[in-house]
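retry 2 of 3: previous attempt timed out while embedding zinc ion. Reduced batch size to 1 and resubmitted. Inputs unchanged:
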Amino acid sequence: MKIDFIAAELRLAMREPGCPICRLRDEAEYGYLYFLLYENVNDSSTRQQIVASLDFCSQHTWQMGRIETRKFGQAMGNSIIYESLTAIVRDHLARIHDRVQAERRSRWRRGWERWWERLLHRSRRLPRLDEIRPQATCRVCQIGEQTGQAHLRWLLEGLAQPQSDFRNWYLHSDRLCFPHLRRALELAGPETEAGMEFLLCDALGYLTALRADPDEYVGKQAWDRRVEAMTEAEKVSWLKALRFFGGNERSQDGHRPA
Ligand SMILES: [Zn+2]
Ligand SMILES: [Zn+2]
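retry 2 succeeded.
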């Protein structure tokens, strides 16, 4: 059953280091790109989605390149996708270039207009750039966002039930990062209010503890405390803070998220 599957995925993610939702999002994005390269490079709806956003975002563009060279040892899929996309973008730019030239020729004929605009300090109207405005956001980011939302809703439902195992699993996890905690609080409704309260209460305790170690780290940099040894927790405290605010560090090397 789909629900059991999502609960099992969440449980596994909460056993791993870092924010469980960042992890599930990264896995979904990696999986989408992997299967795109494996068998969907010539799929028309996949290609339409890439054209609608005029490529993926920068991160997913590079990730697709890295995955193919790492996993498949060549760049055939990337070459096919970008051969087509390059031609499309070149056509768009050629049309814009034609409009710029046509506008300039027309303005040359209407020299009085230039004089009038200069007199009124009006800026010149430049041709529209509709063709090169993406009609959609990066498809891979969309997949990641949808996956993250589905799991967050399910997490909230699980945490809303005091007797369920979710609370115990969550308390033994590295917790949600701040962006996903914020998203969870936004997604909560009347039926998951208890889950929202649980997350808030837990976050307050977590942040109180998270603040103590960096405080000691800074204190022990002072001249009069320089001989005091740092604990392991204090040494990595800044990393925990970065992970809370920035979410899990994202893989750029084309490997499956660790
Ligand atoms: Zn996260
Ligand atoms: Zn993206």
